[in-house]
Specification:
Length: 213
Amino acid sequence: MYQLHYFPANANAAPHMVLEEIGANYEIVIVDRAKNAQKSSEYMKINPNGRIPTLVDGNLVLFEAAAIVLYLVDKHPQAGLAPAVGTAERAKFYQWLTFLTNSLQEELMIWQYPDRLAGDDKAAVEVVKRGAEARASNYLDVIEQHLKTNGPLFLGDKLSAADFYLVMLSRWARPMTKPPRSRPAIAKLLDKVTALPSVRRAYEGEGITDGIC
């Protein structure tokens, strides 16, 4: 049985959706960020970064959401959430998943937590936040253009784990001046993916009741 350590609507959401979609046997274990439990000595034994999520599969302990997603899609190829290894389609899957985690997610994290870079300087915090939001918006525009031409999903008509990852990040980005849903092609993807029972079960399992994204 898999064990996913989570906190509601954190980076565990994408792995959680994947676990539901592949029909895996798993349990979720809350790491209470409200009590700073991700920095506890007990949790840092399995994730020395003190970040969420962590996946435990027997003797394997794995952190980083994208790595967990890749592990799950590789271990459950019958679910079809990634193209076959060695194909051009698989390369594109890698490209978009990496873009989501290394580019869009990174800027959203800076936008949400600008003080981590700017410290206590309020003016600097605003500069950092505005810059991160502008870069994140540009990345969303890149995704929008891709989906307009190649959609409705990242890999055309084929559902992949990259689509789940965008759902997760789009929830984080809802307070942006120009949120993801303001872009028609992204909104179409979000409507399609959030209608899946697996996605609804994952968020309901985390106690999310105010809409997914």
